Amino acid sequence: MSENKFNPKIIGDFLNFSRNFTEAPMKASVPHEVKLGSTQFDVAYKEDKMRLLHFKPLTSKQVRTPLLISYAVVNRYHIFDIDPKKSWVKNLLEQGFDVYLIDWGTPSKIDKFLGFDEYVNRYLDNCVDFICDETNVDKVSIQGYCTGGTLATVYSSLHPERVKNLIATAPVIDGWKDTTVVSNIAKYFDVDKLVDTVGNMPPEFIYFCFSILKPFEQGVEKYIKFLNNIDNEKYVDSFLKIEKWLDETPPIPGELFTVDKGYLSR
Amino acid sequence: MENESNITDYYKKTAMFWSDMIAMMSSKPTTLSAVGPLRNLSSNLKKITSELTEANKEIVEFNNFLIEYYKQLADTWTGAQKEVSSRITKIPQNEEGLEAYKRVWIDIFENNFTGLFDSKKFSENYNSLISTELDLLKRWNAITDVMLKSANLPTKEEIEEIYEELHNLKNRISKLESSKKKA
After folding, report:
1. Which of A4, A12, A112, B18 sits CB 3.0–4.6 Å from A199 for a disulfide?
2. Residue A209 catalytic?
3. Contact with chain A for residue B99, Cβ under 8 A
4. B177 and B162, same structural domain?
């Protein structure tokens, strides 16, 4: 008769995991109560749902040309300032940059007709005008991130006289060359029908597309890691902030989502 | 398949026939007894019946695509689990082995599901599923519009007209402001 041997370490790990699972609600904040963003700012300009945030300087000497960050229309801007120790915005402020950031807001049904023209030639252009007037300069530097990089690139090509530097971080320029599983879904997807019926691109659908990229790493493993690290306050805080940020994906205006191909080909 | 279509057509025609007949038969007494929004609703019942009948066909299609969607997920899960089981015998039964098992499980599942999501059959079925869901949503919107009309409230189409009007007005104001600034 064979003898069953149990590794005490494995049993210990299992018991720890069960304890962490039970104690998690007592040790971590309620995700929706977690506060995002750490650096202080003023709302310098507002148009419809779009807000231009002006971050308070952290140095006495500042770079002459202001920096405008055009954030993505997917997800909210908080990831650039999610934690004081990992804040992209704070890092720029400490280097003496005068930082402005566009928060595109959360579009609703009334915004379904907003397209590239409004985002580039109205919102972005008005923000640049406002910054130039306020800081007495003719040009700004623009950092565009993700789809914000696409908008910034289009803006820079249409209004080169207003842009001193363009920093395009992970911009979507030639999306049709994408070979990920998302492009496979997009191949047979009737965008016009969706926009015509629902109005805007729903956040749940965007979230689905991101989820299929790494379903088990993102959907299973990271939550196991979270529970295993429940006693690590910094890990838990960072995890919950990022989870909340991911969960706050806004809808994308229908017209913008269908993408005016004319703009991109220019 | 053709037989199924004939049956659907039969029920559709029967429903339309009787809803029209009932609407016509009842129009005289309801003109006297039901006035205002309710009168409006009774005359619009035909539209609701028609939408519901059409929706039946789409519900069947939606169910078929949904079944196929879950079947694809379940088949991939089973395939991945089999692959994990075939590899598990090579993993030592100790502390490091548990970590290795977790890694192998995640890698195999990730690969198998990426393969599924990257396949034509998944994309086609998934998008047909979404498309049928949108068709159903359109029917639901049409029915809601009838109810809204009966309650003398603006329909989705009418609200969208206002949205578009507002959008165009905002653009005109923005262009005027811009040209004023340049002048």
Report:
1. A112
2. no
3. no
4. yes
Same domain, B101 and B175: no
Under DSSP, the state recorded for A252 is B
SS3 A43: strand
Q: In this predicted model, what pLDDT tens digit does every residue of A98-139 receive, in sequence order?
A: 999 999 999 999 999 999 999 999 999 999 999 999 999 999
- Same structural domain for residues B146 and B73? yes
Calculate the alpha carbon distances from A197 to B26, B76, B138 in Å: 34, 32, 6
Question: What pLDDT band is residue A179 in, cutting at 50, 70 and 90?
Answer: confident
- Inter-chain residue contact A188 with B127, CB threshold 8 Å: yes
Q: Which structure tokens are listed for B130?
A: 């979404």
Q: Which of A127, A132, A146, A209 is catalytic?
A: A146
Nearest to B118 among A10, A181, A198 (CB): A181
B157 at A interface, C-beta within 8 A = no
Contact A221 B106 (CB under 8 A): yes
Other beta carbons within 10 angstroms of residue B162's beta carbon come to 11
Query: Are B20 and B83 members of one domain?
Result: yes
Q: Which domain holds residue B129?
A: 2-152
Please check whether residues B103 and B172 belong to one and the same domain.
no
Check whether residue B124 and residue B176 sit in a common domain.
Answer: no
**B123 — contact with chain A (CB < 8 Å)?**
yes
Both B85 and B58 in a single domain?
A: yes
Cα first-last separation, chain A: 78
What predicted TM-score, i.e. pTM, was given to this entire model?
0.81
Asked casually if ipTM beats, i.e. exceeds, 0.85, the reply is: no
DSSP for A196-239 reads HHHSSB-HHHHHHHHHTTSHHIIIIIHHHHHHHTTT-HHHHHHH
| A15 close to B (CB below 8 A) | no
Asked if the Cβ–Cβ distance from B134 to A198 is below 8 Å, we say: yes
Q: Are residues B24 and B109 in the same domain?
A: yes
3-class DSSP assignment, residue B35: coil
Residue A34 to chain B, least CA–CA distance (Å)? 30
Give how many domains chain B has, as a whole number: 2
Best to test chain A binding among B83, B95, B162 (most A CBs inside 10 Å)? B95
